[in-house]
């Protein structure tokens, strides 16, 4: 018996006649016997197995299995078909449920002759069966028509009037769109449309019942009287059309219609004969008799019966006539319904358009919506100077507010001022990509629009929309998004400014463009242990994209995976040249953000590889067109600039660019030949070689790529020899040539610094013996000495050419870089073993006489200051350099700033080597421009932001160099010594200005100038006596004994200046690491420099209140206890001496350099000096601290200073002054021992002009301190009138005054000052005649009554007889001998009222 095929194969069963089948009772022997009989009989098998080919496996149909008739019938193909006779078609049901009926079974017809294979083939839906029947049509000869390209953003609008004019189609109803397409195909000649003959007139093509009777003459039989009546009772306006209300149904008879018309005509004639007043009277009578609901029903029927196609021209009545016909005595319901009926059919001239029947959805008129179809009014000119909303057309161009723009050229709206077009801010979320492109131009108008447009757009979500648009599949949208992103992030003028200052001293370094750090409240970590708190990285990861982008735009873009998308666009999309330039500029701006951002750009997979291979290739071909269609395969200056900015972020990034990415080979390829031989456009060749030199300078600033200098040394010599030829005044590319020469000089300066460190590093490697030490660079001092003579000759020629007007501007731009190079050369020369002092001194004298002195005497050296623009956006900082070329600016092309810095650097180095040259440069300090500039700087107030820091850094260099020169000249030049106080003042002002990376300058100022005895004061002991006399005259009304010793304190402080300097340098020791890093950068120790990116701009190097630093440091070291006061501990060793030196320095500044501390608020001074009392329990009792503190208190309480002391302003570092004062009160109660100095300090904030909260704290929470607050009126440094005037108006405080006096808590013998203050305010309060609230008046009467019954006669007389405070009297106030009549009358009235109330009570 044949085995059954595999289960996966299809089977088809067919029942035929068959012999005896095996039974279950048959044994094995029976089965074998039956089989043998079957084989001997030779009969054919009743079951055939046909193998069907598996099309999924690609098998062909044929071969194998079962012969017989089936094999012959089907050509011998093996089929997987099993046919069994007498086998039912359906399986028997296993459940008694009725069989299911199929709705499709009746439609299924089967034939006995049908081949099962063919049926299977028809039902097989496999993909192979479908694909096997696909036949591709030949379309090679079919014309392809592309849609036309237009400059408009929106497709042309199809108007219904145009659609109606299309050729009608005979076959049924077609949509408007189908008719338009058919007409377009007919126009193009693609298809032939057989159209019906066009109707002659529009009216004839319509059915009779729908024809619009617009040409029929209007009925003129009804005059104005009839019109009035019609508008109320709704009589049909035309008599020929029949009546509305009279139907004739009840008349009966064959001629009832004629009778109806006769009645209608009689009504018409009767109305015609009535006057207007009669009509109105009948109308009122009729409406008063009828049911209002019936009237409303009739009117509604009339409104429904009016066909919507009826034109308004059949109602010639105007609106004024309708208003006159309204009844005056009808109820509100009738009026409202009548008005509704009127407005359902507006007049023709009220509608801006005439509705046509074929218009879609116009069966019901809506006049308020049709109003928007009227013509727009002309734009109104507003008489205001306020900023108005910016408006754009479809091309993205800014539209003036008064321009009348047609509706098809602008996006108008249905709000206020519909006549003015406006574009919404959803720039990139338009459905049509043309709209998204033109709306993405918003970033171009940042400099045109008023207000901070960037912040507004960022708040509206522009950043996310641009990021979404970058993922768009349409290249045009993607390109527009890139362009808008570049306009948002990149400021071309900022980049130009930083490029122009690259050749300045330390110009290759720059601040990271990080937003100002904003401290956020850490609510989630409150109350948690340190090991449980989230780290900074975890917090950053938990933030959403919006939270990150709100604070930092660049960081938000990096979080949104911008870099991989830009890589994809560059690598896969390969966009147009402009898009490539925009992407490279965006990457440059991201690299300027921070070192971490630059690292992310460098680490992005295949991004930098794509830039290097596509836009900085090592070989390329000459382009035939000036503007190539693609920049792929060509070197780009913007790509080289990207490498330079990335290299600035750190030496490791620079090494990766040079060694791993092939930047070294690119430098060699671009700089080994002249720009004219690079097969590039001349301007682009100059730009890319300039950027190559700048990248080389940055690398040399780390001591890298110096072996390339040895390889290209001959080329560099040829370039230097051809400088004058390349800088011809007639060259149209002169600005680019100048930038290239300046970049070469910057590179040579850095190579000179690196070569100067070779000797020190070589010796360090020998002595280090395996410890960490940078390896010596491959270039040594001998490699760079040959360039000095050539460059010095160039400089002499440039100085001589200053008198030539043609060459003056060019020479002024070049001279500073030559001066910086010479400074580097002579600075490093003095540190070499080959240094020859005698020859070098002679060379320096010759340089001074031939170059420096002529340059100093030239009018090109002058001082000018510039003004910078405001910060643009907090989350997207920039330099705000818009328009820097058009206004006087420190970075302008004609600015003398780089020239002065170069001169100062070279003079500082020369005078350090040759001391005798100092006197020759005194003319610079004594010149009027320099003196005036220093005076203006001494009065300036520093501000810190990205808009000013990038230039302030260079200005600080200049001021430091001028002060260094003055410090060397003061001991030897009497004329310069006259301005000693000015120089010292400028040094004190400059010190808190210095920015991060200027720690070395701060250390030098503190070590030399700030604490110098020669510059600390001028005039000797006579000046001290004059200062003492001046202070005494200012405070002659005070007789505190300690004030007489100010002169002695000043003398002692001057003697202690070296110790004071040591004290402050010790407290600034935490800046040592920063000072060393800054020193390496300023002294050109390139192998030790790790990054040319300056520290984050978080604040100045030193705080503005740095003179208080020892006091604040001691306060922080002692710590705060849980009770709010300070822990009472033993002072650290040297703390008393440090506090004494700090107070001495503050006393010197307050006497001689008062303006140096003007940046510190008076309330901040008071808070910092309060640390004397809070640091320890007995520090303020030390004699030197007592003397100095008394002197400072007298200086701070002078009348001019008291007026500027505002305690409502919170001191820096504190939430409010109230918190500090509470700690002072607690400390006074605990450890003061009634000290008069501490008492004066506590009394100072209790003046009347300050908040009553401070006084409530004394008389409420700390009332016990009144017993020990024994400051006398003579010791009080503040006039008593400041405590008593104006009268107190705080009722709770007055009650506390009264309670403390009555209970004996406040006595004159314990607290004289506050005793007088309380008496004064209470006396004024109880005898006040001013009108007041009931509560206040009741308090007055109650206090006066209680005072009258006091048993303490002294206190009673003081309260009743108090006259005026008198600080110099014995009591501190004057009294009346007896009660004045007005007070007696007041007292009598209060007591009489009390007696009368008591009598009534009895």
Strand content: under 5%
Rg measurement, Å: 50 Å
Number of E-type strands = 2
Report the average pLDDT across residues.
78
Read across the widest sheet, the strand sequence of neighbours is 1-2
Biased composition (Acidic residues): 518-529
InterPro entries: RPAP1/Rba50, RPAP1_C, RPAP1_N, TPR_RPAP1/MINIYO-like
Pfam family, one: RPAP1_C
Family: Belongs to the RPAP1 family.
What's this entry about, in short?
It holds the Pfam family TPR_RPAP1. The protein has 1402 residues and is an all-alpha fold.
List the helices and strands and how they pair.
Layout: H1 28-41, H2 68-73, H3 116-123, H4 127-131, H5 160-164, H6 176-188, H7 224-233, H8 256-273, H9 276-289, H10 292-305, H11 319-324, H12 332-343, H13 367-370, H14 433-439, H15 453-459, H16 462-470, H17 475-489, H18 492-500, H19 536-542, H20 545-551, H21 553-559, H22 562-573, H23 577-593, H24 595-603, H25 607-615, H26 637-648, H27 651-659, H28 663-671, H29 682-701, H30 706-711, H31 713-721, H32 723-726, H33 734-756, H34 758-768, H35 788-800, H36 805-829, H37 837-857, H38 897-913, H39 922-926, H40 928-938, H41 946-969, H42 974-977, H43 980-990, H44 999-1010, H45 1013-1016, H46 1021-1034, H47 1046-1055, H48 1057-1067, H49 1072-1082, H50 1109-1118, H51 1135-1152, H52 1162-1169, H53 1171-1174, H54 1183-1196, H55 1199-1204, H56 1217-1231, H57 1236-1243, H58 1252-1261, H59 1281-1284, H60 1291-1302, H61 1312-1326, H62 1334-1348, H63 1353-1361, E1 1362-1365, E2 1373-1375, H64 1381-1401
Antiparallel strand pairs: 1-2
Helix pairs in contact: 7-9, 10-12, 14-17, 16-17, 17-23, 20-21, 23-24, 23-26, 26-27, 26-29, 28-29, 29-33, 33-36, 35-36, 36-38, 37-38, 38-41, 40-43, 41-43, 41-44, 44-49, 46-47, 47-51, 48-51, 50-51, 51-54, 56-58, 58-60, 60-61, 61-63, 62-64
Main location: nucleus
Domain RPAP1 N-terminal: 262-303
Family: Belongs to the RPAP1 family.
């Amino acid at each position: 018996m044949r085995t059954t095929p595999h289960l996966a194969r299809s089977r088809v069963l067919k029942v035929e006649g068959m012999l005896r089948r095996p039974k279950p009772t048959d044994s094995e022997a029976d089965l074998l016997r039956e089989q043998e009989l079957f084989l001997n009989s030779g009969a054919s098998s009743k079951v055939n197995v046909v193998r069907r080919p598996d099309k999924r496996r690609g098998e062909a149909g044929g071969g194998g299995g079962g012969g017989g008739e089936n094999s012959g019938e089907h050509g011998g193909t093996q089929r997987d078909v099993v046919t069994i006779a007498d086998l039912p078609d359906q399986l028997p049901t296993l459940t008694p449920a009725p069989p299911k009926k199929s709705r499709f079974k009746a439609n299924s017809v089967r034939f006995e002759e049908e081949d099962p294979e063919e049926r299977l083939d028809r039902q097989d839906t496999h993909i192979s069966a479908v694909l096997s029947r696909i036949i591709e049509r030949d379309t090679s000869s079919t014309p392809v028509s592309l849609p036309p390209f237009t400059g408009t953003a929106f497709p042309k609008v199809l108007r219904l009037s145009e659609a109606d004019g299309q050729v009608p189609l005979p076959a049924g109803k077609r949509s408007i769109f189908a008719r338009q397409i058919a007409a377009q195909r007919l126009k193009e000649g693609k298809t032939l449309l057989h159209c019906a003959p066009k109707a002659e007139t529009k009216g004839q093509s319509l059915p009779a019942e729908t024809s619009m009777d617009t040409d029929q003459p209007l009925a003129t039989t009804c005059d104005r009287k009839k019109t009035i009546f019609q508008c109320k009772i709704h009589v049909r306006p035309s008599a020929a059309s029949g009546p509305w209300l009279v139907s004739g149904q009840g008349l009966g008879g064959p001629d009832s219609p004629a009778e109806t018309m006769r009645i209608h005509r009689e009504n018409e004639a009767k109305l015609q004969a009535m006057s207007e007043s009669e009509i109105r009277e009948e109308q009122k009578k009729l409406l008063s008799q009828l049911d209002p609901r019936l009237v409303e029903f009739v009117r509604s029927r009339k409104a429904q019966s009016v066909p919507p196609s009826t034109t308004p021209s059949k109602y010639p009545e105007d609106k004024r006539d309708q208003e006159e016909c309204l009844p005056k005595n009808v109820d509100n319901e009738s009026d409202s319904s009548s008005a509704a009926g009127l407005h359902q059919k507006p007049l023709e001239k009220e509608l801006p358009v005439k509705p046509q029947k074929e218009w879609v959805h116009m069966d019901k008129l809506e006049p308020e919506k049709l109003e928007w179809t009227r013509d727009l009014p002309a734009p109104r000119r507003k008489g205001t100077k306020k900023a108005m909303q910016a408006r754009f057309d479809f091309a993205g161009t800014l539209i003036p507010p008064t321009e009348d723009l047609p509706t098809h050229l602008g996006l108008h709206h249905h709000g206020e001022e519909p006549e003015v077009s406006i574009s919404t801010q959803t720039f990139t979320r338009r459905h049509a990509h043309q709209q998204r492109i033109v709306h993405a131009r918003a970033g171009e108008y940042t400099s045109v629009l008023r207000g901070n447009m960037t912040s507004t757009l960022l708040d509206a979500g522009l950043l996310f929309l641009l990021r979404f648009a970058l993922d768009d599949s349409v290249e045009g949208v993607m390109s527009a998004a890139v362009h808008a992103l570049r306009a948002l992030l990149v400021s071309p003028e900022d980049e130009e400014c930083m490029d122009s200052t690259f050749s300045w001293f330390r110009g290759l370094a720059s601040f990271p463009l990080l937003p100002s750090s904003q401290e956020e409240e850490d609510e989630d970590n409150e109350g948690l242990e340190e090991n449980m708190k989230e780290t900074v990285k975890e917090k950053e990861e938990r933030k959403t994209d919006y939270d990150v982008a709100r604070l930092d735009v660049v960081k938000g873009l990096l979080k949104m995976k911008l870099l991989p998308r830009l890589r994809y666009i560059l690598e896969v999309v390969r966009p147009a040249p402009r898009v490539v330039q925009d992407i490279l500029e965006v990457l440059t701006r991201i690299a300027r953000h921070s070192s971490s951002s630059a690292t992310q750009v460098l680490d992005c997979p295949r991004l930098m590889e794509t830039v290097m291979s596509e836009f900085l290739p090592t070989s390329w071909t000459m382009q035939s067109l000036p503007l190539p269609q693609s920049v792929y395969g060509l070197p780009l200056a913007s790509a080289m600039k990207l490498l330079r900015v990335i290299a600035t972020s750190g030496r490791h990034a620079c090494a990766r660019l040079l060694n791993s990415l092939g930047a070294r080979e690119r430098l060699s390829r671009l700089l080994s030949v002249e720009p004219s031989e690079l097969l590039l456009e001349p301007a682009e060749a100059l730009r890319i070689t300039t950027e190559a030199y700048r990248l080389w300078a940055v690398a040399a600033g780390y001591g890298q790529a110096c072996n390339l200098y040895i390889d290209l040394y001959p080329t560099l010599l040829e370039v230097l020899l051809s400088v004058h030829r390349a800088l011809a005044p007639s060259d149209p590319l002169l600005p680019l040539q100048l930038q290239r020469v300046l970049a070469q000089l910057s590179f040579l300066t850095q190579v000179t610094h690196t070569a100067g460190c070779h000797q020190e590093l070589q010796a360090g490697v020998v002595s280090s013996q395996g410890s960490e030490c940078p390896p010596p660079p491959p270039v040594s001092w001998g490699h760079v000495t040959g360039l000095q003579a050539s460059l010095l000759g160039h400089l002499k020629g440039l100085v001589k050419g200053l008198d030539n007007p043609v060459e003056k501007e060019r020479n002024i731009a070049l001279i500073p870089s030559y001066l910086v190079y010479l400074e580097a050369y002579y600075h490093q020369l003095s540190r070499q073993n080959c240094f020859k002092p005698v020859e070098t001194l002679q060379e320096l004298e010759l340089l001074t006489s031939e170059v420096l002195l002529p340059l100093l005497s030239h009018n090109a050296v002058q001082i000018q200051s510039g003004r910078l623009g405001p910060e643009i956006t907090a989350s997207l900082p920039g330099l705000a350099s818009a328009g820097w070329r058009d206004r006087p600016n420190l970075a302008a092309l004609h600015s003398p700033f780089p020239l002065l810095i170069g001169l100062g650097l070279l003079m500082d180095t020369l005078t350090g080597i040759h001391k005798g040259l100092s006197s020759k440069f005194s003319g610079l300090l004594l010149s009027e421009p320099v003196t005036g500039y220093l005076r203006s700087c001494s009065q300036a107030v520093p501000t810190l932001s990205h808009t000013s820091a990038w230039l302030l850094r260079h200005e600080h260099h200049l001021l430091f160099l001028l002060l260094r020169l003055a410090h060397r000249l003061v001991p030897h030049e009497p004329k310069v010594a006259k301005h000693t106080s000015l120089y010292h003042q400028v040094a004190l002002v400059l010190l808190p200005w210095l920015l991060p990376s200027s720690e070395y300058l701060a250390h030098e100022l503190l070590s030399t100038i700030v604490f110098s005895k020669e510059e600390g004061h001028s005039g000797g002991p006579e000046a001290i006596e004059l200062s003492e006399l001046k202070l005494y005259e200012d405070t002659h009304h005070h007789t505190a004994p300690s004030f007489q010793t100010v002169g002695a304190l000043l003398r002692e402080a001057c003697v202690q200046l070296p110790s004071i300097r040591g004290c402050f340098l010790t407290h600034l020791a935490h800046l040592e690491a920063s000072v060393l890093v800054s020193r390496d950068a300023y002294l050109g120790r390139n192998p030790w420099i790790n990054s040319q990116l300056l520290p984050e701009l978080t604040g100045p190097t030193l705080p503005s209140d740095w003179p208080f630093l020892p006091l604040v440091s001691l306060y922080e070291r002692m710590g705060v206890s849980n009770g709010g006061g300070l822990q009472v501990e033993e002072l650290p060793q040297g703390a008393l001496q440090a506090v004494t030196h700090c107070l001495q320095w503050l006393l010197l500044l307050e006497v001689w350099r008062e303006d140096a501390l003007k940046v510190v608020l008076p309330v901040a001074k008071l808070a910092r000096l309060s640390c004397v009392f809070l640091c320890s329990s007995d520090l303020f009792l030390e004699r030197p601290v007592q003397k100095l503190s008394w002197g400072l208190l007298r200086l701070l309480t002078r009348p001019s200073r008291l007026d500027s002391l505002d305690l409502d302003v919170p001191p820096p570092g504190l939430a409010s002054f109230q918190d500090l004062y509470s700690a002072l009160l607690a400390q006074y109660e605990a450890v003061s021992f009634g000290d008069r100095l501490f008492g004066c300090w506590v009394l100072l904030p209790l003046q009347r002009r300050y908040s009553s909260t401070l006084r409530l704290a004394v008389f409420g929470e700390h009332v016990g301190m009144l017993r020990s607050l024994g400051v006398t009126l003579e010791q009080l440094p503040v006039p008593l009138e400041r405590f008593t005037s104006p009268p107190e108006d705080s009722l709770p405080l007055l009650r506390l005054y009264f309670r403390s006096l009555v209970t004996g808590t406040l006595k004159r013998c314990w607290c004289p000052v506050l005793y007088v203050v309380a008496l004064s305010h209470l006396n004024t309060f109880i005898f006040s005649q001013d009108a007041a609230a009931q509560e206040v008046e009741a308090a007055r009467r109650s206090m006066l009554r209680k005072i009258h019954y006091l048993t303490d006669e002294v206190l009673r007389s003081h309260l009743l007889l108090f006259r005026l405070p008198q600080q110099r009297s014995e009591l501190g106030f004057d009294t009346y001998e007896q009660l004045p009549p007005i007070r007696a009358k007041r007292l009598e009235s209060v007591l009489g009222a009390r007696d009368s109330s008591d009598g009534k009570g009895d």
